[in-house]
Structure formats: structure tokens, C-alpha cells
Amino acid sequence: MATSRPWSSFISIARSFRLPISAMVTLSSVCGFYLYRFNFHPLDALYLAAGVFFLASGATLLNQVQELKSDRLMERTSSRPITAGRLSRGKGLTISLALIATGLASLFQTGNGTVLALGLLCLLLYNGIYTLLKPRSTLCLLPGGVCGALPPLMGWLAAGGPIEDYRIWLLSALLFLWQIPHFWFLAATHSEDFQKAGLPSIFDHIDRNQFKRVAMVWLISFLGGISMLAGFEVVRNAWLQGGLFLLAGGGLFLGLKNLYSTTGKPDQYRRLFLHLNLAMVAVFALILLDAARPLV
Predict the structure, then answer these.
(1) What is the end-to-end Cα distance of the chain in Å, rounded?
(2) pTM for the whole thing?
(3) Tens digit of pLDDT for each residue in 160-214?
(4) Which of 127, 284, 264, 275 is nearest to 189 (CA)?
(5) pLDDT, position 11
(6) CA-based max dimension of the chain
(7) How many Å separate Cα 119 from the centre of its chain?
(8) Residue 3: predicted pLDDT
(9) How many CB atoms lie within 10 A of CB 79?
(10) pLDDT tens profile 37-60
């Protein structure tokens, strides 16, 4: 049993990183990097990916330290290592700060001071504004959305891309449009948890039918943004552009069908949440395939 304890502690620490979220953020930054195809620096890409991953992992672990009280009240978060007591709050804080320092050091190695500054800004927006505002107002989504939109810009700048280029702003805007319904569908899936923890919800202000209309506007905007990636030749290959248009059209049909057929059951909102995330991953995959074309 003694030999299994270190391994158990490692698993608890790894689970605290919320790896799917950290991986998604890292993937978005890599897409920004390779969207600017005129420079190809594998070592810079490695520094960028490592920096964003460690920074995101440290930030989400710090978030769990900050939100320990509310996490204990919610079934969705009650099994997290810090919440369940498998990882102490003090150790979690120490690890989170070490990860953040490692991430910032890796971003420094990209040689671009703006990338490092944007990493610090993400930390401020997520842990300093979003997390503190979350128990008080649903407006926390705005700084949270901006934070999620910055990693592609970090990747673009790390590759040497000009900040005034419209392509990176379209991609970053798409990430912002994705963040809002992403959080709404998650909150709708776990609405009882949010009530237990006393967290404000969009349903404090509008009913379920009104929510459908509001979510529809954001969903259409997000899928329209996907089409713009093709229409404005952010993705330049004709077949991949077709893939984006197909993704947007299919997403619109399925999204509206699922949204208007929902009766408010958590599983129905969970399905919308999953489809939205899969659509974003598909966009990343098409961007990377387009960027890789000259290399294959």
C-alpha cells in the first residue's frame, strides 16, 4: 500500500489540472501560431505550447483553491482532489504557483514580450476578475470570454504575425463567441448545483423560453463566425473551406433542432454543450490541416 500512495498523489495532482480545458486552450494557441504560415519555428511552437499549457493548468488549479467553498456545495465539483481532501489547499496553492511560474518562463523563451504580457493578462482576467466576479454577477462571462480569446493571438504573435492582420482577430473573435454559450449550456446542465452554491445564473434574469432565443442568437453568431473563416480565406484550401461551411450549416441545423426541442432536462443541455465543443475542435483541426498543406 505504501508504494501506491505516491502514484495516488500524482493522479490527484494531475486531475486538478483539468487536462481537457488546458489542452483545449493550448490547441487554440497552436492554431494561432500555425495560422501564420510564413514563419516555421518548431522550438518557438514548443515554448508556446508548454507555456500556455502550464499557465492554463496553474490558473485552473489556483481557481480551485479560490473556489473551494462553492466547489464543496456542488455535486459536479465535489470529487475534485482539493474539494475531496485528497490534495490539501496549501499544496494546491504551491503547485499552482509553480505551474504558473513555469508557464511564464516558457512564454518568456519565445522571445516576444507581448506574448508574455498577454499570458499575464490572461491570468489577471481569469483568476483576478472572472473568479472573483463569478459569485456576484453573470457579467463574469465577459472577462472570462476575453481570456479565452487571447491564446490564439499569443500563438500568432509568437510566430511573428502582424497584430493588425484580420485573420487572427476573426479567430480570436470566434473563440469569444464560443465561450459564452459554452458556459451557458454548462450552467444549464448543472443548474441545481449553481443554486446550491449560490452562484448567479442567466436563469435568474430570464426564463427557459427566453434563454432559447438568447442562446440561438449566440449560436448563430458562432456558426456565422465559422463561415467567415472560409469566406475571408482564413482557411485557404477550397476543400477545407467547404468543410467549414458544412460544419457551420450542419451545426446550425443540429443546434437549433436540439435547442428548440429541449424541455429543460440536463441531458439535453449537456448534448448541446458537447456538440458546441466538438464544433470548436473541428475548427481547430481544419485550421491545422490547412496550415500543414505546404509541408506535406
Answers:
(1) 50
(2) 0.91
(3) 999 999 999 999 999 999 999 999 999 888 888 888 888 888 888 888 888 888 9
(4) 264
(5) 57
(6) 59
(7) 14
(8) 44
(9) 11
(10) 655 667 889 999 999 999 999 999
Q: Is the separation of the CB atoms in 244 and 229 below 8 Å?
A: yes
Q: Which three cell numbers stand for residue 237?
A: 484550401
Residue 212 grid coordinates: 432559447
Measured torsion, CA atoms of residues 99, 140, 158, 42, in degrees rounded to the nearest 10: 60
Grid coordinates standing for 233? 480565406
Placement of cell 428548440 in the chain: 260
The C-alpha cell that represents 9 in the structure block? 498523489
Is the distance from CB of 85 to CB of 39 less than 8 angstroms?
A: no
Give me the helices (H) in 41-135, please: 42-66, 68-73, 81-84, 89-108, 113-123, 131-133
Stretch (H or E) spanning 292? helix 266-292
CA atoms within 13 A on the CB side of 253: 5
Length of the chain: 296
CA-closest candidate to residue 90, choices 98, 19, 70: 98
In this prediction, the residues of the chain whose per-residue pLDDT falls under 50 are 1-3, 296
Predicted local confidence at residue 1, as pLDDT: 41
pLDDT at 296 (0 to 100): 47
Q: What are phi and psi of 105, to 5 degrees?
A: -65, -40
State how far the Cα of 239 lies from the Cα of 237, in Å rounded to an integer: 6
Q: What does the buried/exposed string (b/e) look like for 114-151 if buried means 16 or more CB atoms within 10 Å of the residue's CB? A: ebbebbeebbebbbebbbebbeeebebbbbbbbbbbbb
